[in-house]
Design brief:
Number of helices: 1
Number of strands: 25
Largest sheet: 5 strands, antiparallel
Length: 295
């Protein structure tokens, strides 16, 4: 059996966090990690290469934060979370763990509603929820602050407005919280306690981190011709100039194998690749990567 990503029509920011070095990292929906994202020369690598322990989980990441004490936490769809050593990029023992009353007291009822996470300071962590609410979490007392969740309104987060249910990622640096929404970017002044600007991603200071034009490769995969040790994956592209690879691995493995996809004919929109040396009754993960038009 295979687990696949949703069709990739365009590239968005999936999660963002700031390290102890005061540099912002951004994880994109195509699996690329942009480190030192604010700089003139950000470092772009595939997350599976930079943080291999995330290879099996990056598709599920909905939020992240660095606790400034040596660990980066990643929250996953499905109500789980990871703890990764920031320096060594290794996973702590016995992770992923379930978000419950023992691990994140008070958060268990909202574990499947998390849209993003932002580290505010050594005491406070905010969770923005897909439903348009938010949670203030006290890291010192290790529990949700009384009275939360609260609705995102003009009174609570002035200026976020129609983005209340569209937030994809958030990160605070100094006096600014950067809000990456579905269709726009917002700059939130911490001292002013309000949004100071709302622009499209293409017009923002982050336009270099996300391609301005959707990629040509739209993935509509289906599985075909299974045998006891192989599976042919076929998919359709918008145009006929794309080149692609399929990365696949056993579900619990760390590293991916890859195979080049080929086109049915020079003018066909359909491509395929055969994944060999598969084991019976084994779960596999795979995704398709555009190798010539992704920015």
């Amino acid at each position: 059996t295979f687990e696949e990503a949703e069709p990739l029509e365009s590239i968005h920011i999936k999660a963002s966090w700031m390290g102890i070095d005061n540099k912002i990292s951004i994880l994109r929906t195509d699996g690329y990690l942009i480190e030192d994202a604010e700089s003139a020369s950000p470092q772009k690598t595939l997350v599976r290469d930079t943080i291999p322990v995330l290879s099996s989980y990056w598709l599920r990441i909905v939020g992240a934060y660095d606790n400034k004490k040596g660990y980066t936490y990643f929250f996953l769809s499905g109500g789980e979370y990871l703890r990764v050593d920031t320096a060594t990029k290794t996973m702590s023992n016995n992770y992923p763990r379930t978000i419950d009353y023992l691990t994140w007291p008070g958060l268990e009822d909202y574990k499947n509603d998390i849209a993003s996470v932002v580290y505010w300071n050594a005491e406070v962590l905010y969770f923005f929820l897909k439903s348009g609410y938010y949670i203030k979490y006290n890291l010192t007392k290790d529990r949700i602050v009384n009275g939360y969740p609260k609705e995102i309104t003009y009174a609570t987060w002035p200026g976020i407005g129609e983005n209340e249910t569209k937030i994809r990622a958030t990160v605070r640096k100094d006096d600014t919280m950067h809000i990456f929404a579905q269709d726009s970017y917002q700059n939130y002044s911490v001292s002013g306690d309000k949004v100071t600007s709302t622009v499209s991603m293409n017009e923002s200071i982050w336009n270099h981190t996300v391609p301005a034009v959707p990629t040509e490769l739209s993935i509509y995969p289906f599985l075909q011709l299974p045998t006891s040790s192989s599976m042919t994956v076929r998919f359709e592209t918008k145009g006929v100039s794309s080149q692609a690879k399929i990365y696949y691995k056993e579900h619990n493995a760390v590293h991916y194998m890859s195979v080049n996809a080929v086109r049915d004919t020079a003018t066909s929109r359909f491509m395929y690749a055969t994944l060999n040396n598969l084991k019976s009754n084994q779960r596999y993960d795979y995704y398709v990567e555009n190798t010539n038009t992704i920015n």
